[in-house]
Amino acid sequence: MTIDAAQIEAVIRKVLATVPTSDEPAGVEGDGVFADMGAAIEAAAAAAKAYRRSSMAERRRYVAAIREVMLKPENLDHMSAQAVIETGMGDVAHKYLKNKFAAENTPGVEDLETSAWSGDDGLTTVEYSAYGVIGAITPTTNPTETIICNSIGMLAAGNAVVFSPHPRAKNLSVWQVRELNRALRAAGAPENLIVTVAEPSIEATNAMIEHPAVQMLVATGGPGIVRTVLSSGKKAIGAGAGNPPVVVDSTADLEHAAKCIVDGASFDNNLPCTAEKECIAVDSIADLLKFNMVKAGAYEAAPEEVARLETLVLNEKRTGPKTQWVGKSAAELLREIGVEPPVGVRLIICEASAEHPFVVHELMMPILGVVRVPDVHAAIELAVELEHGNRHTAVMHSRDVKMLTKMGREIQTTIFVKNGPSFTGIGIGGEGYSTFTIAGPTGEGLTRTRNFARTRRCVLVDDLNVR
Ligand code: NAD
């Protein structure tokens, strides 16, 4: 599938200036929005109880209503533009694509497959059943995409959901919860299947984690929040940070590899946890790869420019990014260090050592360190090291099936993309469904409806075996 991002971008840029902000401030209650977390959870618990009486056909209808309201052109425009405006991060056109894919390609009720045994002793079925109330913590980097895919999967599995959005995305997240509630009400769903608080905060998130009526926690975010939910004593799914390496060996189609890397590493200004965060190139092809990356929209920073970039974007200890530069465009970063950005520039590349902070740390901005290594074996070894055991995402460009296999076996990531941009791994231009909650630490992988359900066995003794 070819994604014509340029065309979409042109349209979005036009509407960006005219997109209205929500006319209801975040603080207003109603339509699933509550003043305090306790009240929100109680409402969700009542909704979950009422939801048990809904048929599967009704569930399907409610999920369809979520997709429909999120796919309204004015809502897609609003979410994509407002996310950039409110969080100060990312790219409107790419957010539009992410929201659209989340609404269209997240699995629904059909994902809940029943298994059965029948025999002389009767009939036993194993069915996916709701947890009840799920507490979902969502990131700044994909604020609306995560609420879309979590809402679809969690409601399809029969649950109610309490969202704890990042405070930096609160207005948009609260707006989205309202829109979802209005659509669900119109479809006849129980009230308050999706709730949040008017003023999201760390304190509200912690109250949600501890509340006894919340039976399951799903955290999409950095290592801190994943650690917190995993030590909560509750069933938890942790979708944490990544530092995806992209390896290019001497057999790769270099022009194609270069374009894919620039596309993937610049997607939404490198915010996705799946985006290429460092490049490891075999020495013999590194120059040609960089030449093709520049042709595809990258700018190669000279050593003195790299030094200025380091001062600009790294925190004092050089262990990660300064938050204010996360998700900014390559053009903004270049301008800030006194470089006039070339027309159409999407990514900044620079040669770096394997120990350089641009290579070692997850920056979430379109700066890609390129590390030279003598051969493909050294490249794979370094990729494993730089992935830091996150088991998240890795990419490789190669025509050598043996080496692709070796990398897949060694790196053990949840997503391994071969000969394509990283976003194909979440179903954008690649086969497979979409999700924005990728659970490496807890092993669910690309989360889907069945991950938000528990299995229950029903046994009927002696009868209903008709063979
Ligand atoms: P973040 O960890 O700062 O915040 C994520 C969420 O956790 C927010 O809702 C935030 O309010 C909450 N939170 C953070 N610390 C908390 C604490 N101490 N107590 C209570 N709540 C807390 O992350 P972010 O900047 O919003 O998102 C970027 C990070 O998320 C990156 O590391 C990225 O790789 C990761 N991410 C992972 C996935 C995935 O599917 N694996 C998807 C998107 C983002």
Key traits:
alpha/beta, binds nicotinamide-adenine-dinucleotide, six-stranded parallel beta sheet, 16 helices, single chain, 467 residues
**Quaternary structure of the protein:** single chain
Report how far apart the termini are: 46 Å
**Residue-averaged pLDDT, rounded?**
95
Binned, the helix content reads 40-55%
Question: What's a concise summary of this model?
Answer:
This protein has helices at residues 5-16, 37-51, 56-71, 73-87, 92-105, 143-156, 170-186, 202-210, 223-230, 254-266, 283-295, 303-313, 330-336, 357-360, 376-387, 401-411, and strands spanning 33-34, 115-119, 122-130, 133-137, 160-164, 194-197, 216-220, 235-239, 245-248, 278-282, 298-300, 347-351, 367-373, 393-397, 415-418, 438-439, 445-446, 453-461. It is α/β, with parallel strands linked by helices. Helix 3 packs antiparallel against helix 5 and helix 3 runs antiparallel to helix 6 (143-156).
Describe the structure.
With 467 residues, this protein is of the alpha/beta class. The chain has 16 helices and 18 strands. Strands 11-12-13-10-9-14-15 form a 7-stranded parallel β-sheet, sandwiched between helices. The protein has a 6-stranded parallel β-sheet with strand order 1-6-5-4-7-8, with helices on both faces. Helix 3 crosses helix 7. The mean pLDDT is 95. The site of nicotinamide-adenine-dinucleotide has 28 residues, from helix 8 and helix 9.
